[in-house]
Structure formats: C-alpha cells, structure tokens
C-alpha cells in the first residue's frame, strides 16, 4: 500500500527547482561575499601604489638636496592632511582624508610625516621601508588593536631614486576601516540583487511549473472525457509542443475508437429498427402474390409504401444524427438574427399548424442576434416544434420565448397538451425512444430529441424537457461565448 502523498508533477518540479535556486543563490552569495573584501582592498592597494610612485617622483629632488622639511612639498602634504572633502560615494559621505604619508631617507629615518607624529623615528625595520630599500616591493598591513580586525592599516611604499640609487622611501598608508562602509554597501547591494533575481527566477519557475501542471490536467481531463464518450474539443498547447503531440495522439486514438464503436452500435440499432418495416414489406408482398380483391391490393400496397417511407425516414434521421454525433466541435459559426430564424421555422410548420388550428406565438426579438451553426440550430428548433405539434390538441397553442441567463440564451417552447408520463420524462431524449402520438397512436423514429440534445452539446448548452401547468416545456439553451 502506497502511503506517499500524491503531489502534482508541476509542484514536484517546482520544489526541485526551488531547492536548486536556493542552493545556487547561497553558493553564489557566499562566494561573492568572501571576495568583496579582498577585491576592494586589492583595488585600493593598486591605487596606493600609483600614488606612492607619483609622490616619490615629486619629492625626489628635495630628498636629494636634503631640503624636504622646508620644501613646498612639505607644505602641500600639510595642507593635504587638513582638507575636508565633501564627496558622496555610493550614498556614503566622505568628509576626511584617510591617507597618511611619510618619507624616510636611505637609512629608514622618517624625514617627513603628514601627521607630524613620527619625525626622526627609525622605520627601517618595517617591511614597507625595509623591502623597498632592498629594491623589492614594500608593503605591510599592521593592526593597531590585535582584537579588532578592522584596525589594520595598509602601507604601500615606493622608492625615491637619484639616478639608479635609492635615496629614500615614500609610504602611503590607509586604514582598512575607511574601506569598510563601501564593502558593506557592496554586500548590501549584492544581497538585494540576489534576492530580487532569486524571487524573479522562482516566479518564472513557478509559472513554468503551473503551465506544465495545467497542461497535464488538460490532457487528463481530455482523456477522461474521451473515456466517458463525451464531446470535447482537443486541447491546444502553443509553447509545450510535446503536449500538443500527445494531445494529437489522444485525438487520433479517440477517432479510431469512436469510428469502430460507432459503426458497431449503428449496425445493431439499424438492423433492429429495420426488422419491422422489412417484415411488413415481405408479408405484404407475399400476400399481393395471391388472388385479392382490388381493395385488398390497394390496402397492402399502401402498407408497403408506408413501411418504405418509415425505412427512408429512419435512415435519413440516422444519417443526420450520426453526422452531429461525429462532430466534436462546431466548424461553421455565424451570426444569426433570431427574428429571422424563428420566422423561417414557424413558416416551415405553418401548413401543419393551420391544419390543426394551432396558434404559434413567437416573441419580438427586434435586432437580437447570436452566434451559432445556422443549419444545426434551425433543424433542432424545427424538431422541437414538430414534436410540439404532434402532442398539441386541435385549437391549442404553442408559445416560443427567449431567456438570457449567465452567458446562455435559451429558446423556451411550451405546448398545450397532456403532460409526459413520469416513467418517460427522463427517457424522451434516448435514441429510438418515442411515445405514441395522441391523434393516431403511432410512434416516431425516436431520434428527434436525441438530435436536439447533440446540437445543444455542440453549442455548449443544454436541452431540458419538463412538465408545466400548461403542458410540456422544452428549453434549448446555447452559449453566448462561442467563437
């Protein structure tokens, strides 16, 4: 016994997609977060290198002549340390100069300091000065507080040359704490964009999963309705062409099965229904071969003619019904003026209605129109009215009215006469089921209302037959949303 919950395929795909997106976002975000700080510091170090080399060139002459302390360069460095820039970088206000600049001679003794705190001190053991004096790249990062990782200061040095001889060192220092606001801003922006992109990607994934699940549901419903023998249009898929191929395969299979079942069913029903008229014709023809009076010959000849008409009528009705039943959707939809449609139908039955003195009352529709298959709707309404004529007594009436409800237009036909017996009320739309006509006791083919019901289904509507106080009420509704 399977206790696993039945989770739709679309949901399962989305859950897998969700896990992959979250894992990818985590890996990417953690990698970027780790790389932001060293990248910013490397970029800053590269800038400090350029700055140190520029200053080394500018002060080289003063260091060579040992006039640096009284030179213009010394005054400029002092003014540089006092500047208050009003810069706004990435939304962060920069109000102080963060660089410290000091210069040492060829022995590593500080001869100029922008902060005036370490003049005369020996810096020859610091890596920035020590390595540069040896002709190497000099740089160091020193922490002011070993418990505070942000207290480190980056030092980058450049040699001062007199010809090919190193006569001093320029060091440019910058506290890493001054870089931290930009690192935090960069991290914040990266996180924001990752969140936005993750949500967007998840939304797209959810949309795709929903479309896949919706497509599968359409195919499932299509297959279920095919199994139940219902009329249903083949679902179409624009993006997922693989589902369209499956839909085509199901449609092809349905047509093959319908064709086989349809032929088997109609051969059986046609054989059964033709037995009686054929037997009557055979019997009449045998009797006509004997010696009969003139009146007897006429009577049996009329029996042959009546049976032949019955067979012809049955075959024509079966052909009309089979054509409608084979249709899965309407192929010829046009705009119909209801006033003209009802006038044509009433005119078609006027001879019979006049013979029985039956009044047919139709509504005034003005310019009201609907979309439908003109031929099928005309035949369906004609069948209903012919049935109504059969069961309406002489001097009776038939009324036609229209009702608009929830996207449906209903043709309501009420005829005076006896109500339909309860045992037959739910069977009047069955194929070959018919009630005896009150005037002669004869039955029809039993295909008329079944034809009307099929037409109603093709128009996404419904056929309802019920008893009322006046007589019998038949409602044929069709959708107003047909395309």
TrEMBL record:
Pfam name, any one: HisKA
GO molecular function annotation: phosphorelay sensor kinase activity
Reaction it catalyzes: ATP + protein L-histidine = ADP + protein N-phospho-L-histidine
EC number(s) per entry: 2.7.13.3
Species of origin: Pseudoalteromonas denitrificans DSM 6059
Protein name according to UniProt: histidine kinase
InterPro entries with a match to the protein in the record: HATPase_C_sf, HATPase_dom, His_kinase_dom, HisK_dim/P_dom, HisK_dim/P_sf, Sensor-like_sf, TCS_sensor_his_kinase
Coiled coil start-end: none
Keywords: Kinase, Membrane, Phosphoprotein, Transferase, Transmembrane, Transmembrane helix
Keyword Transmembrane helix listed: yes
């Amino acid at each position: 016994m399977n206790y696993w919950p039945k989770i739709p395929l679309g949901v399962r795909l989305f859950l897998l997609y969700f896990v992959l997106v979250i894992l990818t976002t985590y890996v990417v975000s953690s990698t970027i977060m780790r790389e932001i700080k060293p990248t910013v510091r490397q970029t800053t170090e590269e800038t400090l290198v350029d700055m140190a080399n520029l200053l080394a060139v500018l002060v080289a002459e003063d260091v060579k002549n040992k006039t640096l302390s009284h030179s213009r360069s010394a005054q400029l460095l002092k003014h540089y340390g006092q500047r208050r820039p009003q810069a706004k970088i990435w939304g962060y206000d920069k109000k102080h100069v963060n660089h410290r600049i000091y210069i040492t001679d060829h022995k590593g003794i500080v001869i100029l300091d922008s902060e005036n705190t370490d003049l005369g001190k020996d810096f020859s053991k610091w890596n920035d000065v020590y390595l540069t004096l040896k002709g190497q790249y000099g740089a160091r990062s020193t922490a002011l507080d070993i418990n505070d990782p942000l207290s480190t200061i980056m030092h980058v040095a450049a040699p001062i040359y007199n010809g090919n001889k190193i006569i001093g060192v320029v060091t440019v220092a910058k506290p890493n704490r001054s870089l931290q606001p930009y690192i935090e801003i960069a991290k914040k922006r990266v996180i924001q964009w990752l969140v936005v992109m993750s949500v967007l990607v998840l939304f797209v994934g959810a949309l795709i999963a929903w479309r896949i699940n919706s497509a599968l549901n359409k195919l499932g419903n299509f297959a279920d309705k095919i199994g139940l023998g219902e009329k249903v249009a083949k679902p179409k898929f624009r993006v997922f062409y693989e589902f369209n191929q499956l839909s085509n395969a199901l449609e092809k299979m349905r047509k093959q099965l319908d064709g086989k079942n349809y032929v088997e069913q109609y051969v059986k029903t046609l054989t059964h229904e033709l037995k009686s008229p054929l037997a009557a014709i055979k019997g009449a023809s045998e009797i006509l071969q004997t010696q009969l009076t003139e009146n007897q010959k006429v009577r049996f000849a009329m029996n042959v003619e009546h049976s032949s008409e019955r067979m012809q009528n049955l075959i024509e009705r079966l052909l009309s019904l089979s054509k409608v039943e084979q249709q899965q959707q309407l192929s010829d939809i046009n705009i119909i003026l209801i006033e003209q449609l009802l006038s044509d139908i009433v005119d078609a039955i006027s001879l019979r209605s006049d013979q029985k003195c039956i009044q047919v009352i139709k509504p005034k529709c003005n310019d009201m129109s609907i979309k439908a298959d003109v031929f099928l709707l005309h035949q369906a309404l004609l069948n209903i009215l012919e049935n109504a004529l059969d069961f309406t007594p002489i001097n009776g009436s038939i009324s036609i009215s229209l009702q608009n409800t929830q996207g449906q237009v209903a043709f309501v036909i009420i005829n005076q006469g006896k109500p339909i017996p309860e045992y037959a009320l739910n069977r009047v739309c069955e194929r070959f089921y018919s009630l005896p006509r009150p005037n002669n006791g004869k039955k029809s083919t039993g295909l008329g209302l079944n034809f009307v019901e099929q037409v109603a289904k093709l128009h996404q509507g419904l056929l309802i037959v019920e008893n009322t106080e006046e007589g019998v009420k038949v409602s044929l509704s069709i959708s107003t949303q047909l395309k």
